[in-house]
């Protein structure tokens, strides 16, 4: 019985998800127990309970997955299928994600602590990304090059080989599909390693891919933590690494990739600013700021974790945001009334609390917007911090929790200087009714994405990625072709007739 079937049987019989069973790697079309026999606890951050166990793969397990992917690439069982056939299989996979969306959503919610309603959106996004890239199977084409007349020259896009996808825990399934869907669409094989804090949905996706007709060895998932990640990034049989995670880990990944000269794209941390001008629609801006920082308890790479508000409307803005936030309910992922879930771990909660305490001691004003904090679980009330002393790290470092740093600006130049003042460059939000200002500032903001009068819009058609310490490369949209294929130039001499 596959894990998918186990999950469904279990869910219908007991209301519990896949965690009744250990979550194992899926390698070469099979469930594989860890060679070293090691397991990690799966903890529900909404109550601190151990709800399952996860195989902690060794370097030898990872090698099995890499060799399976290498063989599957070399014999052409996937890359040499007709593009229409790959397209059909990937569309079928998207349909299977839809079919199992409830179980996948529950797994994601319990693993990450996010409200079930948010997890459902994640699963729907993953299916949409799979469909978008399924369409690309039959759309990627080459060029005829205007070379000297005695030659006929073309470029074609060819797969890279074995692609590694290393992903974080905050949006496990969507972020996995950003990497796996284009990799498979263009004929590569994959070894994915999800975060040890939320792996189950990724393993389930591999089972569903198998059911959809993706041949054995083409899409492998190894579970585990840093050991498994390091084994993947140091392998000489890997042809591309796509990493999403913290900036610190991203640097380690790039160092390893440099040793083997493996191309790598990295999507890293952020400290994105939302700029609120006095002419903005205040109600809409408050909604956008609240969604940008309280969604997923602020644990989003593009969290709008800094607000820069024009001096003249500072008090009105903070009071409206405080009122809006006070209505939000903290709670367990599976509680239908929950607006904000816990942070991912006890360690993360302790770290954030210490950061806030230190900022308060340095002179900042720390205001919590909710009093009803659940007793069990790793909950932190949504927190607004004002008056942060110049140069204090709370204004520039990623917190990864429901903490909003507020500052003011006087004019456009001041706003841009402050917005660009961190090492990150992932995203920014602009709130103003002046369209010319939107264009002027969009050019100057050091960010991979700028949203104006909205925030956090993701869609498979919209390329996403960072600048500066937020990484490089773009996921989603047509640019993915460049990251999952290479360009082959072919030159044919035309003999005289
Ligand atoms: P993390 O860096 O701790 O872990 C990410 C992944 O890397 C996990 O699978 C982990 O097991 C693995 N890993 C750990 N050490 C490794 C090593 N030495 N070599 C290879 N792999 C290793 O990140 P996290 O806590 O899971 O996620 C949160 C971070 O991710 C935040 O900084 C957030 O901003 C960032 N993030 C960025 C984006 C983006 O698109 N830019 C999206 C989501 C999250």
TrEMBL record:
InterPro entries named in the record: Ald_DH/histidinol_DH, Ald_DH_C, Ald_DH_CS_GLU, Ald_DH_N, Aldehyde_DH_dom, Aldehyde_DH_NAD(P)
Entry's Gene Ontology BP terms: aldehyde metabolic process
Residues annotated as the enzyme's active site: 267, 301
Keyword set includes Ligase: no
Superkingdom in the source lineage: Bacteria
Keyword entries, A-Z: Oxidoreductase
Domain Aldehyde dehydrogenase: from-to ranges: 40-489
Pfam families from the UniProt entry: Aldedh
MF GO annotations: oxidoreductase activity, acting on the aldehyde or oxo group of donors, NAD or NADP as acceptor
The keyword Oxidoreductase appears for this protein: yes
Gene3D superfamilies: Aldehyde Dehydrogenase, Chain A, domain 1, Aldehyde Dehydrogenase, Chain A, domain 2
Entry similarity comment: Belongs to the aldehyde dehydrogenase family.
Name of the protein described by the UniProt record: Aldehyde dehydrogenase
Organism: Arthrobacter globiformis (strain ATCC 8010 / DSM 20124 / JCM 1332 / NBRC 12137 / NCIMB 8907 / NRRL B-2979 / 168)
């Amino acid at each position: 019985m596959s894990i998918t079937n186990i999950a469904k049987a279990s869910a219908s019989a007991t209301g519990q998800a896949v965690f009744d069973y250990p979550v194992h790697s899926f390698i070469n079309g099979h469930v594989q127990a860890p060679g070293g026999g090691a397991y990690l606890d799966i903890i529900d951050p909404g109550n601190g309970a151990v709800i399952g166990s996860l195989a902690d793969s060794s370097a030898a397990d990872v090698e099995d997955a890499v060799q399976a992917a290498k063989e599957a690439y070399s014999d052409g069982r996937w890359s040499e299928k007709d593009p229409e056939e790959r397209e059909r299989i990937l569309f079928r996979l998207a349909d299977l994600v839809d079919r199992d969306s409830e179980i996948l959503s529950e797994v994601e919610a319990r693993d990450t602590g996010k409200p079930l309603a948010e997890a459902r959106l994640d699963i729907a996004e993953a299916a949409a990304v799979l469909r978008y890239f399924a369409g690309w199977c039959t759309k990627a084409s080459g060029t005829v090059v205007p070379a000297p007349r005695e030659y006929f020259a073309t470029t074609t896009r060819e797969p890279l080989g074995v692609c590694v996808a290393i992903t974080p825990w905050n949006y496990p399934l969507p972020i996995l599909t950003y990497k796996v869907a284009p990799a498979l669409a263009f004929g590569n094989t994959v070894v994915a390693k999800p975060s040890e804090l939320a792996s189950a949905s990724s393993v389930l996706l591999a089972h569903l891919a198998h059911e959809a007709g993706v041949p054995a060895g083409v899409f492998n998932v190894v579970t585990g933590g840093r050991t498994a990640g390091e084994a993947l990034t140091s392998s000489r049989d890997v042809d591309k690494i796509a990493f999403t995670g913290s900036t610190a880990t991203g640097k380690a990944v790039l160092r390893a990739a440099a040793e083997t000269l493996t191309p790598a794209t990295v999507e890293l941390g952020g400290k994105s600013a939302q700029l609120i001008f006095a002419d903005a629609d205040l109600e809409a801006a408050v909604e956008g700021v609240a969604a940008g920082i309280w969604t997923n308890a602020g644990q989003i790479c593009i969290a709008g974790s800094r607000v820069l508000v024009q001096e003249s409307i500072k008090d009105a803005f903070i009071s409206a945001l405080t009122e809006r936030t006070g209505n939000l309910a903290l709670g367990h992922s599976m509680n239908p009334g929950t607006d904000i879930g816990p942070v991912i771990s006890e360690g993360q909660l302790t770290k954030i609390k210490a950061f806030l305490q230190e900022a308060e001691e340095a002179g900042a004003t720390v205001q919590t917007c909710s009093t009803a904090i659940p007793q069990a679980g790793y909950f932190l009330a949504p927190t607004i911090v004002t008056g942060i002393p110049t140069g204090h790290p709370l204004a520039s470092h990623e917190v990864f929790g429901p903490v909003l740093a507020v500052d003011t600006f006087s004019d456009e130049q001041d706003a841009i200087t402050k917005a660009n003042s961190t090492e990150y460059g992932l995203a920014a939000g602009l709130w103003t009714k002046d369209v010319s200002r939107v264009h002027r500032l969009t050019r100057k903001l050091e960010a991979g994405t700028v949203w104006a009068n909205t925030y956090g819009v993701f869609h498979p058609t919209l390329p996403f990625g960072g600048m500066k310490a937020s990484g490089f490369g773009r996921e989603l949209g047509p640019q993915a072709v460049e990251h999952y294929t290479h360009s082959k130039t072919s030159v044919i001499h035309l003999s005289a007739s």
